[in-house]
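Technical appendix A lists one of the benchmark inputs used to test multi-chain prediction within the project. The record comprises two sequence entries:
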Amino acid sequence: MAIQVRIPTILRTYTGGERVVDGSGSTVTELIDQLEADHAGIKERLLEDGEARRFVNIYVNDEDIRFTGNLATPVADGDTVVILPAVAGGSR
Amino acid sequence: MLTIDRATHDAIIAHARRDHPDEACGVVAGPIGSDVPARFVPMLNAAMSPTFYEFDSGDLLRLYREMDDNDEEPVVVYHSHTATEAYPSRTDINLAGEPGAHYVLVSTRDGAHESGPVDFRSYRIVDGDVTEEEVRVVDSYVDGAVDDGTPTDTESPQQKAEH
């Protein structure tokens, strides 16, 4: 069993159009490194200066990782990870 | 071109007016691939700001799960500008994350939050490129095809609709 990772539309160019891909690792950091190995280029869209990007949301089992330890958040086989770009903007 | 029914069009404007001077935001979901904005979903602006909007991250996850369960996608992503024109800002362009969506902007500046015409404009935003598109307001959608209704009200870009 792997970690199921849901990929948003805008990042499916990196996954050959796949909406859901398998991942592995014991933390979100490791998971993202594994995703990068399988889908080159995706990491840069998720991280900036070693941190999760401000306008990309990552959820492990429905919890935003900002509230569970950020990239150090533990993951395990059977978990579901959802990546969603923030819906944000404004006139400023 | 964005084709949208009048009830949804009016609901977006009503939301923008209600939340003025803060920016209002939301989506209109529709069946995947249909390009029909069918289900109006006003969202809370977690930033509660006159110059910025952002969906709450928990709300965002619930919204996308709901759309997944319904085989829907965000056909329209809308927000208001409350002191500037209904044109995507640099921030809007940088943060646009739904290349398949129609980005609708409405402006409630210059007293439009109380009465008079409200700018209602639509754009595609893909890889940093902004393309304005025509907005066609129809009475209803029929059988997946679009019912032109009578009379049809076509708003060309730059034009202000009377409401």
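Residues 1 and 134 of chain B are 5 Å apart (CA to CA). Confidence is low (pLDDT under 50) at residues 158-163 of chain B. Comparable benchmark entries are summarised in Table A2.
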